[in-house]
Amino acid sequence: MKRWFLVLSSWIWFAGQPAGAQVPLPGGPASATVPMVAQITLEADEDTNCFVVVTGTASLSLGRFTGPTTNRVAQTEIARMELVGEAPDLGIVTVRAGSNLVGRATLGALSSTNRFFPARSTFDLFLTVGLPGGTNLVNLTPIRLTNSVTAWPPVGQAYVSTEPVILVLASATNIVMGSLEQLTLLPANRGNSRLQAVSASVTGSNSVRLTLPSSCLASTGTAVVAGQRQLFSGVWQSRLGCDESFRTNLQFTALWNTTQRPGDWRGFHTGRFVLFQLVGGRTNIVGFGTMDGSNGAGTRRAPLELDEEDCASCYRFEGRLRGRVIASGPLAGA
Questions:
Q1: Residue 108's closest CA among 98, 118, 96?
Q2: Which residue of 75, 101, 228, 320 sits 20 to 30 Å from the alpha carbon of 148, by its own alpha carbon?
Q3: Rg of the chain, C-alpha, whole Å
Q4: How far apart (Å, rounded) are the C-alpha atoms in residues 173 and 30?
């Protein structure tokens, strides 16, 4: 088991309305590019389900509202969406949407019965799911996403698919490859204030997909090993007197690359991470972002007052997480 120490550095956005105040619909037209997170469950055959979390950005557009006060409606569109993630047993998965990327537009509507939020929002999503090896799957039947939203763009408000849809081979649409069982799409908050020094420990396992031995260019010719597309996952937890984790029952997963020297395995890493919770059989995304730092060299040691570790801890990771907290609560938008 391997223990890692994490530090989160990110941004917080505080915004609100007076209690009981009604929020009017935007004037439109308007457009925005926001961070996007999606949870997807794919079924390749009757016995195999593949769950993957993908992150990236999406461009959303809103048209002008028309109709009477009791039925104000505006057309919406996911003009462009590009997401990427990794399924543990499958590999890198990409998800794209938007007419310029997949050839079919993802259109929707935002409607209200009184010119104010909350408003009903829908999208008919057409996407391309890219699998390892160059296989691309598409849906010919739109994926209907629905939500009751309180703002536009609807950051922090999840859209959930209403029913499974068939996925076919993009190059031969008469060949059925499986189905998309469930899709949750979550536009994320942006922040503009900084939250620093949130520390936690993760005990988990690290799966190395590809290693590339080489040597440094220095005269010593020190050998190094580059580990690419490593998948690390474990439980995010606080240690008394050391960590200040901001939430309990969290799971941590990361896709990272490392460069380390054999023996003491000191080096550095870069990658992407996702924080999530398992609640009632569902996976709820808490935050995501990028990560970087050192490996195999702890800092909780003399001459610091907190002297509790070997300076050459082989499985030690320390560094920084940069990202966004998208779960509801006081840190939403961090």
A1: 98
A2: 101
A3: 22
A4: 35
Contacts of 143 by beta carbon, 8 Å cutoff, 6+ apart:
124, 125, 126, 127, 161, 165, 180, 183
Alpha helix (H) ranges present in the chain? 99-102
DSSP state letters, 269-326:
EEEEEEEEEEETTEEEEEEEEEEEEEES---SSTTSS---S-TT-TT-EEEEEEEEE-
Say if residues 96 and 107 touch (Cβ distance below 8 Å).
no
Which of 277, 330, 326 minimizes the C-alpha distance to 34? Answer: 326
Q: Is the peptide bond before 68 cis (omega within 30 degrees of 0)?
A: no
Closest to 206 in 3D by CA, of 271, 112, 111, 281 = 271
**251, 282 Cβ separation under 8 angstroms:** no
Torsion, Cα of 299, 301, 306, 308 (10° steps): 110
pTM for this model (two decimals): 0.60
From the first residue on, what is the mean pLDDT of each consecutive set of 10 residues in the chain (334 residues)? 33 35 87 87 70 86 94 96 82 93 97 94 97 93 94 87 93 94 80 52 66 49 65 74 64 83 77 81 78 77 58 66 71 57
> Are residues 94 and 57 in contact, defined by beta-carbon separation less than 8 angstroms?
no
